[in-house]
Amino acid sequence: MPVSESVMREIADLRGVYLPLVSILKGEPADQTIDEARAAYIKVKARQAPPPDVVFEPVGMGGVPGLLAIPASAHEGRILFYIHGGGYVSGGAEASKAEVGRLAKALGARAYVPDYRLAPENPYPVPIDDVLAAYRWLLDQGHEASSIVFAGESAGGAMVISIMVRARNAGLPLPARGLTISPWANLEHTGASMTNRDGIDPVVTKDTLRLLAKAFLRDTLPGDPDASPVFADVRGLPPIMVQVGENEVMMSDAIRLAEHLSNNRVRTTLEVWPGMFHVWHHFAAILSDGQEAIETAAAFLFRAYA
């Protein structure tokens, strides 16, 4: 469906508050510190509120701070481990409360959202290490891996795959299913949509992604399998759903991720949503396609408990 003017205004405001962060990463003069720029971004994202019957409380996960979302509909034995996005440089659990709350409610699960450390102060592999530590902590609390499902958006969507691979390689039990929303799956940015959707995607541009990747990777090659799961050894992973908007610069590489998973015998569901943009789920309160995508994703994840 067409994107309303109210949604486009929210997107424009998000892009506006992101500009100081871009200037900081470029080394240009800015009237904010990096922490102030991050806080301003989260404040605008927080205008999209979670459902009122979802309670959030702080939680520590093996030395990694974060949030626990508890919907009134939560069932014992259903755990959502959600990895926020933000290009490894911004965002946080607070910034993703809208989509986390709606997905947790639809799934009837408690949701744990780690606040991993951010680049450029904490570049690769620190964010990935933090999220793996948080997952290890979750298992150490006595939760069965079969009761846990992963989800994440953007950089967090890529980490859904990367953390599963890391967990498998460390001998940890894998979650039952995974959802990757608008995944930033290839930091080489070689997909066709990086060119033919650049300027059409209202949220993300290729130039900004290059800047974020440089801040995150430093001297690490962009094709490192941890950072770009399109190159990872994904054999043995549980069923994965990939959701991406047709207007996204990341679309082609998200499709490549789904193909890579499928070629390696991972049960894969790919959804490409016509006319949608990067992480449209965040606007589910004012965008019906956002709520529908969350409900579709929850139905996929729920089959872990059937």
Task: Describe the SSE topology.
Blueprint: H1 5-26, H2 34-45, E1 54-61, E2 64-71, E3 79-83, H3 97-107, E4 110-114, H4 126-140, E5 148-153, H5 155-169, E6 177-181, H6 193-196, H7 206-217, E7 240-245, H8 251-263, E8 268-273, H9 288-302
Parallel strand pairs: 3-4, 3-5, 5-6, 6-7, 7-8
Antiparallel strand pairs: 1-2, 2-4
Helix pairs in contact: 1-2, 3-9, 4-5
CATH class (first level) name: Alpha Beta
H and E order = HHEEEHEHEHEHHEHEH
Classify the helix fraction into a percent range. Answer: 25-40%
Number of E-type strands:
8
**Biggest beta-sheet profile:** 8 strands, mixed
**What structural class should be given to the helix and strand makeup?**
alpha/beta
Spatial arrangement of strands, main beta sheet = 1-2-4-3-5-6-7-8
* Low-confidence sequence ranges: none
Fill in the keyword field for this structure.
8 strands, alpha/beta, eight-stranded mixed sheet, 16% strand, globular, Rossmann fold, 306 residues
Summarize the structure.
The chain is an alpha/beta fold and 306 residues long. The protein is built from nine helices and eight strands. Strands 1-2-4-3-5-6-7-8 form an eight-stranded mixed sheet, with helices on both faces.
